[in-house]
Amino acid sequence: MNKRFLLSFSRNLSTLLLVLLPLIPSILTVGCEENPVQEEHHAEPVGLIVTDGDTEIVRVEQNVVTGSFQLTQETLSPHYQLQFLDEDGEMFLPDDPDFTPSATIEDPTLLEVVRDQPDDWNFHLKGLKEGTTTIKLVVKHGSHNDYESPAIPVTVIPNKTVDNSSLNGVI
């Protein structure tokens, strides 16, 4: 009787192990709250919104630019707030210090970007001389661009302040 019992027990144990063995990895990982092997995920910009207070100035969605910047020559723009859009349309700013703001200006003789701090995502624009150009807002990750917006139109209009130097003493 002992032999039959051991043989039966051995078969049942083998069957049980064959059924449970594939489930063991699932059972072990279900209880883990944090998996240290997973890569850190950060939101990927797919668009952006630039505002001046509550007023939307520029929006980029699905690579389509809506809006533009209009500046007065030799005048600092308002303090623009920049937010990026992720694939779900949620606004965010990169919070990893490896991500930094940058911009590419088509004609840098017409326009410059002014930031209160070098790593500040918000910015001012300053029109240097009358004309039109474009600007691409960029998220840099180390030495490469992680995101670059399409070209955003910028118009710099003349400053209407009278230039007294042209009067040459005439009253």
Brief sketch in words of this structure:
By secondary structure, the protein is of the alpha+beta class. The chain has helices spanning 2-20, 24-30; strands spanning 47-52, 55-61, 64-67, 69-72, 81-85, 91-92, 99-105, 111-114, 124-127, 131-141, 144-148, 152-157.
Strand arrangement in the largest pleated sheet? 3-2-1-5-6
Low-confidence spans:
none
Mean pLDDT, to the nearest integer, reads: 83
CATH topology of the domain at 47-157: Immunoglobulin-like
Report the order of strands and helices.
HHEEEEEEEEEEEE
CATH class of the domain at 47-157: Mainly Beta
* Secondary-structure-derived class: alpha+beta
Proportion in helices: 10-25%
* Rg value: 30 Å
Topology summary:
Layout: H1 2-20, H2 24-30, E1 47-52, E2 55-61, E3 64-67, E4 69-72, E5 81-85, E6 91-92, E7 99-105, E8 111-114, E9 124-127, E10 131-141, E11 144-148, E12 152-157
Parallel strand pairs: 4-12
Antiparallel strand pairs: 1-2, 1-5, 2-3, 5-6, 7-10, 8-9, 10-11, 10-12
